[in-house]
Amino acid sequence: MYDVTIIGAGVVGCAIARELSKYDLKILQLEKSDDVSNGASKANSGIVHGGYAAKYGTLKGKLCFEGNRLYEKLNEELNFGYKKTGALVIGFDEKDEENIKKLYENGIKNGVSENEMRIIYKDEILEIEPNISRDVKVALLAEDVGITSPYEMTIALAENAVKNGVELKLENEVLNINENTDYYTVITNKGEYKTKYVINAAGVFSDKISRMVGIDNFYIKPRKGQYIIFHKGYGKIINRVIFQTPTEKGKGILVTPTYHGNLMIGPNADEVSEKEDLSTDVETLKYIISTARKSVPNIDLRKILTSFSGIRPTPSTGDFIIEESKERFINVAGIESPGLTSSPAIAKMVFNILKNSGLKMIKKTDFDPYRPPIIIKKNLSYKEVNKLLNINTPDQIICRCEMVSKKEIIDALNRGIPVKSIDAIKRRTRAGMGFCQGEFCGPRVRKVIAETLNIPEDEVPQRGKGSGIIPKKVNLNYFKNLGI
Predict the structure, then answer these.
(1) What is the pTM for the complete model shown?
(2) How much is the pLDDT for 248?
């Protein structure tokens, strides 16, 4: 019998698992795919939003502000990569200025201090961000905004939760939940698990899980957002995250540096019927490029690296759903943007719900909050990298674009979470995320995985089971040939 079973291993589920692992509880975490972070958590903007970003008086507004304040310490403990950059929400006319003033007022209500946020005008905007459009009139400068690597954060939370006793079972799709007098039986494709409490953190499928226990007072609208990533290093053309003034559809097309130094633009927001449709299309990417260039006109399309998309779990209620919806059944549903930012605070809220529900919380004396990094930054010359490509030592460079060593890949394979695919190693080490997109290092990564796990190379897939429909992708040379 488990005390708590968490359904879903995205950033929210893993944040909850890690928070609860501080206490003397028997915890199970179930995930239908072959790895953590295979849903929206691997395919979002990676922005740690400021306190102005979500409406005052909502759960989103409260938890976005609280979550933002937890990132610095969390990164010190878990080493997933976080940097406070600040952001500009830019406007081009009087209507935009009115909306920016409302954002400022909303931020103050949510708890942002006046020295973290102010409204600035054209001359100062162009002084601090010289590559922004000359048509800009006004902006909200929000200093509390940051950037992170969302999948690395999710992986770090999961690794630390497992290290502290959480039992993570991958490739366990929940098929049904039976209610008993004082416990639930969670039935998956791999077995049945008895548990006192269930936490539903199943992302776009959280409405389906909720209906298994008779709760159908909300539904999830899948909303797809597409992105374009540019070469590593090109993120330097801007210093901060650049937003346009938001509309009723959301925060709009942003231009941002990523934590690892790429430039990223997107996303759009389209409601879709298929919850696992991760395809991209030419017309949407053209729209993203043209809209992003309203903010930063001289984006060089020749530096496009790849595109991707993610599905956001937009709730019918318009706000996060975090509650004990039924005795000992806690819904953590509809966690769309700013869900990544809010996730550490969501975890603490769920802890309080469990405690108030009667679950005994005794702090562990041996909880270890620390998780060492996998990625080790290197300053190697091209000549040094070439020397290390074919040496048979742990320092052998497997991925020359991202300078990933053999020992980093072996480390990633030995952290308590089964890693079976090349893509799973990519998310942990960045091997395959460089200029050649895995053409060079893919076979080399496969070989290291096979040798370490003592399995044949042909048993190492590119993508693991349950990691979604293989997306149709646009030939990005179409955009590169448009020039600058």
Answers:
(1) 0.96
(2) 67
